[in-house]
Amino acid sequence: MTPLPDPLRRFLDLYHDAEFWESHEALEDAWRETGSDFYQGLILYASAWVHWERENAHGVRAQLGKALNRLEDYPDRYLGVDVADLRSRCEATRRIVAAHPEGWSALVRPEPLAVDPEAVAGDEPELG
């Protein structure tokens, strides 16, 4: 089994602890080094939840839209992350926020990301 890259593991730990800003920051250096759209998609996803904490509907929708753009070309599972589920959540959350201009923040919640470390293929560029 190929281990998850340390920056990704740190991101996931912080995200699961609802430390959205810190999780975003945990991937910044790795993203800058690799130029990984996958990492940038996760950064944007976490930043959407920072906007949720601030009750900024526009920020949530914008960041989730950007995350979708970055993640669209990735397979359904990548580096152990269930990308298909992540994309589905982004789309659903964007629809809810758009449909409920009042009270939208009570209708959406950050959920744990589905990750299976055994699903790491081992040839992902972020492992290099």
Explain how this protein is built.
By secondary structure, this protein is mostly helical. The chain has a single domain, classed as Hyaluronidase domain-like (Orthogonal Bundle). The protein has helices at 6-16, 20-34, 37-53, 57-71, 83-99, and strands spanning 77-78, 81-82. It has a two-stranded antiparallel ribbon with strand order 1-2. Helix 1 runs antiparallel to helix 2, helix 2 (20-34) packs antiparallel against helix 3 (37-53) and helix 4 runs antiparallel to helix 5 (83-99). The radius of gyration is 14 Å and the shape is globular. It starts with 5 loop residues before the first helix and ends in a 29-residue tail after the last helix. The mean pLDDT is 96.
Task: Write a compact overview of the structure shown.
The protein is mainly alpha-helical and about 130 residues long. The protein is built from five helices and two strands, in the order H-H-H-H-E-E-H.
Task: Identify the notable features of this structure and list them briefly.
128 residues; Hyaluronidase domain-like; 2 strands
